[in-house]
């Protein structure tokens, strides 16, 4: 079963956004639901679900559906495939409950929202609900209790009793109470400093066997008074033997901005191409292998992609972030006066470095933008620099879920089924259309005179000029070679000569030209079948 990636829920979110919105960050999808207007300056009472690229594929495979239940709860469906090709659907819900001292009517309304999520779960679907319940459930008090186990904080409040009754009625349980941990509290009272366990996962009792681990994760902490909780669950129908995971790495092309890295990159390419035959049709294969090896040796990084300003000042910020996280972990465990003071100091120092780092990075980019020679630059160059500045401060972009418009009614579709019906009609009309054409028109086209100079072999200067004109930061083509790799080779004469030799051999061999034109008069097409559009 391939990994399902990371799926996170954000409860009582306060990132300053309001309403319902879908955004994208580094390939992660953020689905937000909250109040239409702010109730305070920092924002509150919002919930959101963040999907990794794997989780996003599972959400799109299930129809990209988002359901809202009141202002404090939402749910989505995820569709996963196991190694035998069988699908398993997961209903992922999240909610933010009223405070424990809220009136009974408000707490009942929230539990009714969760009840609607449970009632929409179909047969054999797996349910996972993450809740900032503001409810202390306590621990197991009798042998017949299948909601809780003996692990956890024993404190119980009125909201916890109501929540326990709700879970027992719907056949749910709290998985984090079934695993022994060193610490259980997810929140401390700001005045009494007493620990409370008020954040929970809920799932069906029948699916408890799928849960591998559940509990708090202090090292995943963010700027919040709550400690994150995590849950590992198996969603596959047929499990295979666990294989040790290889640490996930990526090729960081940004490292080629450093002179030392580019020199090291070229050294590896030289070593790999030593003794290789760089002529003929197969000349591209040794170069591709050499560049791939050099990228793995020099540009491999196990860190996630960060905004441009963070990469520039990472050496200063990373130690401060590590110090802040360590202080936050100590506050969650011991919570002494010294620990709290150390946390305040570490946050203050980090904030003092983040603000000037962003400003200095922005000033450096604006300097580059203002120093451009306008007589030799097109408007696209300036707009690309502006996009780089926007992307460098943060990669959050608005994500739009596909919503087609019905050509008959002119109204946008509201469900995946309506989208599919519109696509079906469109493709039936498009691919079942009968076209008329005459091949004699080709013979009547004016033939241009031959230009023998067009097949002249490119020089080193031409290869270098065209490589430097290629845009950086773009996806590579069919040969899987990014433009930055070729640009790094053009800086020294010997590697530029190797690159030119490869391109020349590829150019002379004519490998890109068709070797045979079979028939200029193809056979007449058969009449299209009614379902021909679905063969595309």
Give a structural overview.
This protein is of the alpha+beta class and 536 residues long. Among the domains are: 8-233, Endonuclease/exonuclease/phosphatase (Deoxyribonuclease I, Chain A, 4-Layer Sandwich); 308-393. It has helices at residues 53-61, 104-119, 158-169, 259-273, 284-298, 308-312, 314-333, 337-370, 379-393, 416-431, 440-443, 460-469, 483-489, 493-509; strands at 7-13, 21-25, 28-33, 46-51, 66-68, 73-81, 87-96, 126-132, 172-173, 187-188, 195-196, 199-204, 211-216, 229-233, 250-251, 300-301, 397-398. α2 (104-119) links the parallel β7 (87-96) and β8. It starts with 6 loop residues before the first strand and ends in a 27-residue tail after the last helix. This is Endonuclease/exonuclease/phosphatase domain-containing protein. It comes from Octactis speculum. InterPro entries: Endo/exonu/phosph_ase_sf.
Task: Set out the fold topology.
Elements: E1 7-13, E2 21-25, E3 28-33, E4 46-51, H1 53-61, E5 66-68, E6 73-81, E7 87-96, H2 104-119, E8 126-132, H3 158-169, E9 172-173, E10 187-188, E11 195-196, E12 199-204, E13 211-216, E14 229-233, E15 250-251, H4 259-273, H5 284-298, E16 300-301, H6 308-312, H7 314-333, H8 337-370, H9 379-393, E17 397-398, H10 416-431, H11 440-443, H12 460-469, H13 483-489, H14 493-509
Parallel strand pairs: 7-8
Antiparallel strand pairs: 1-4, 2-3, 2-17, 3-4, 5-6, 6-7, 8-12, 9-12, 10-11, 13-14, 15-16
Protein name: Endonuclease/exonuclease/phosphatase domain-containing protein
InterPro entries: Endo/exonu/phosph_ase_sf (IPR036691)
């Amino acid at each position: 079963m391939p990994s399902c990636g990371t799926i996170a829920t954000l409860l009582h979110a306060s990132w300053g956004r309001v309403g319902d919105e879908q955004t994208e960050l580094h390939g992660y999808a953020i689905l937000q639901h909250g109040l239409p207007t702010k109730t305070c300056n920092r924002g509150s009472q919002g919930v959101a679900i963040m999907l990794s690229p794997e989780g996003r594929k599972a959400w799109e495979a299930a129809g990209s559906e988002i359901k809202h239940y009141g202002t404090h709860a939402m749910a989505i469906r995820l569709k996963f495939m196991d190694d035998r090709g069988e699908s398993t659907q997961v209903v992922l819900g999240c909610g933010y409950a009223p405070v424990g001292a809220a009136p009974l009517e408000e707490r009942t309304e929230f539990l009714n929202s969760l009840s609607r999520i449970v009632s929409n779960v179909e047969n054999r679907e797996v349910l996972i609900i993450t809740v900032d319940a503001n409810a202390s459930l306590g621990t197991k008090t009798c042998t017949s209790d299948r909601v809780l186990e003996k692990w956890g904080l024993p404190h119980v409040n009125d909201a916890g009793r109501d929540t326990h009754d709700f879970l027992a009625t719907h056949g749910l349980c709290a998985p984090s109470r079934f695993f022994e941990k060193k610490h259980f509290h997810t929140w401390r009272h700001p005045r009494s400093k007493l620990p409370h366990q008020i954040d929970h996962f809920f799932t069906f009792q029948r699916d408890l066997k799928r849960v591998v681990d559940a509990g708090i994760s202090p090292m995943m902490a963010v700027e919040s008074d709550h400690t994150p909780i995590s849950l590992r669950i198996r969603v596959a129908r047929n499990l295979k033997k666990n294989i040790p995971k290889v640490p996930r790495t990526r090729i960081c092309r940004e490292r080629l901005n450093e002179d030392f890295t580019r020199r090291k990159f070229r050294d590896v390419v030289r070593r790999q191409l030593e003794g290789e035959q760089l002529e003929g049709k197969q000349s591209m294969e040794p170069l591709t292998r050499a560049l791939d090896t050099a990228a793995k040796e020099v540009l491999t990084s196990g860190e996630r992609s960060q905004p441009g300003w963070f990469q520039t000042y990472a050496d200063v910020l990373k130690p401060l972030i590590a110090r802040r996280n360590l202080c936050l972990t100590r506050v969650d465990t011991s919570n002494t006066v010294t620990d709290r003071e150390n946390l305040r100091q570490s946050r203050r120092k980090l904030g003092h470095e983040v603000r000037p780092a962003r400003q200095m990075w922005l000033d450096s980019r604006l300097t580059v933008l203002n120093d451009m020679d306008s007589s030799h630059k097109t408007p696209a160059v300036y707009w690309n620099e502006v996009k780089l500045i926007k992307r460098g401060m943060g990669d959050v972009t608005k994500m739009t879920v596909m919503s087609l418009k019905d050509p008959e009614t002119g109204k946008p579709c509201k469900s995946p089924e309506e989208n599919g019906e519109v696509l079906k009609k469109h493709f039936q009309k498009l691919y079942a259309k009968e076209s008329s054409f005459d091949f004699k028109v080709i013979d009547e086209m004016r033939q241009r005179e031959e230009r023998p100079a067009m097949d002249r072999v490119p020089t080193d200067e031409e290869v270098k000029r065209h490589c430097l004109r290629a845009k950086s930061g773009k996806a590579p083509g069919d040969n899987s070679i990014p433009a930055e790799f070729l640009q790094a080779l053009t800086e020294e004469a010997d590697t530029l000569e190797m690159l030119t030799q490869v391109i020349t051999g590829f150019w002379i061999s004519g490998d890109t030209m068709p070797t045979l034109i079979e028939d200029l008069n193809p056979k007449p097409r058969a009449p299209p079948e009614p379902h021909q559009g679905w063969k595309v």
